Amino acid sequence: MKRILLQGATGSIGSSTLSVIRRHRDSFQVSGIAARANVDGLLEVATEFRPDSIALEETKNAARVAEFAKSHGIRRTYLGNGAAAQQAMEDEYDLLVNAQMGGAGLEPTMAALLRGISVALANKETLVAAGPLVMKAAAKHGAIVIPIDSEHSAIFQCLAGESLVEVRRIWLTTSGGPFWGKLQRELSGVTVEQALAHPTWQMGAKITIDSATLFNKGLEVIEATRMFHVAADQIGVVAHRQSIVHSMVEFTDGSVKAQLSLPDMKLPILYALSYPARIPSDIVKTNVTSLGTLTFEPVPDSAFPCLDLAYTALNQGGTAPAAISAADEVAVQAFLNRRIKFTDISAVINDVLKNWPDEALKDLSTVMRADARARQMAEEAVHEYERPAKAVIC
């Protein structure tokens, strides 16, 4: 029985993780859960799974959560800013499933790894902002970072038993989102509702917008260089509209390995939970004879500026990837709040990056300071883009 600490329990990945655990209660036990602010969802999960601990970052409902925990026999309660990190530091568990959104996932991940506890990671920003520090901590303490993202899970599986020196190129696949084939000038008037209408995946709002701009693919490029220890020019992105091939690895002899399945996040979640074993499951059934035609297309140059910005930040190095990750969070939220246009998301990120200083990635505090500074710069940029145009006096 593997004890799972599930952080981000009320989000889309968290909900899918719970679905997997429900189907395999003989293999997995929910030992702890955490959420940022969704107190109703958190208490609903706690009622069903009866974890040993519960954590909530926001303080408005602290008294309600504390009373619930007391009345339901939950032994440990963590409340307020830093609750998830404290939970990761103090709880007893076998695997942390980090399904939090944004920069909030970094500190809990590091807390688990420093204890030698492996992390099933669905939080892109952790490796983007502090990948070298995270992977170093994992190696030093004998832990493993197991990807949950379908793309990185596919690469992880394709590399099983292989040598990294024999990898020529890693190919990340993208569905292209809802605006594939559109030019940037055609996207200025895109609405929030249109951007949230992803053609394949059902995800949270932030990651869905990132999929529409292809910023999520840029984050995945950075993640892949950190996780698999390859150079930026060894990572390519190819459009695959069917979302059946989740990523591919090209080897030095010309062979290509790919991982295929129907697009369902429960499959990479199951793989991450059960690793290094595979447990029998009928959660996802892929009928190979019904897959049909699979197509692959190059991503047009400059069609998705957010993807280009990710490569630029990766090549700049230091804290630049952390900066664009934080800037994107601010810009996407501003778009969702209808403060800026869809095309302003990339503009805000670009404004932050072009003014970002060269800065070495020394430690976790460096990352946190860079994150805060980038958010401030991004908010200032958002303010500029949301201002009404000044009247022209003739």
Explain what this protein looks like in three dimensions:
This protein is α/β, with parallel strands linked by helices and 394 residues long. Among the domains are: 2-147, 3-Layer(aba) Sandwich (Rossmann fold); 149-176 and 214-299. It has helices spanning 12-23, 39-49, 62-71, 83-90, 106-114, 124-141, 150-158, 192-195, 205-213, 215-228, 266-274, 305-316, 320-336, 344-354, 364-386; strands spanning 2-7, 28-35, 53-56, 76-79, 95-98, 118-121, 145-147, 167-174, 235-239, 245-251, 256-260, 297-298. The strands form 2 sheets. It has a 7-stranded parallel β-sheet with strand order 4-3-2-1-5-6-7, with helices on both faces. A 5-stranded mixed β-sheet has the order 11-10-8-9-12, covered by helices on one side. Helix 6 links the parallel strand 6 (118-121) and strand 7 (145-147). The relative contact order is 0.11. Mean pLDDT is 92; it is low at 389-394.
Summarize this structure briefly:
With 394 residues, the protein is an alpha/beta fold. It is built from 15 helices and twelve strands. Helix 5 (106-114) runs parallel beside helix 6 (124-141), helix 6 (124-141) runs parallel beside helix 10 (215-228) and helix 9 crosses helix 13.
Oligomeric state: single chain
Tell how many strands the DSSP assignment holds.
Answer: 12
CATH class of the domain at 2-147: Alpha Beta
Q: Helical percent range?
A: 40-55%
Low-confidence runs of at least 5 consecutive residues: 389-394
| Percentage beta strand | 15-25%
Mean pLDDT: 92
Note the main sheet. 7 strands, parallel
Distance between termini? Answer: 76 Å
Strand ordering within the main sheet: 4-3-2-1-5-6-7
- Principal-axes geometry comes out as globular
CATH architecture of the domain at 2-147: 3-Layer(aba) Sandwich
How is the CATH topology of the domain at 2-147 named?
Answer: Rossmann fold
Instruction: Note the run of SSEs as H and E.
Output: EHEHEHEHEHEHEHEHHHEEEHEHHHH
Number of helices: 15
Structural Rg: 21 Å
CATH homology superfamily of the domain at 2-147: NAD(P)-binding Rossmann-like Domain
Helix and strand content put the structural class at alpha/beta
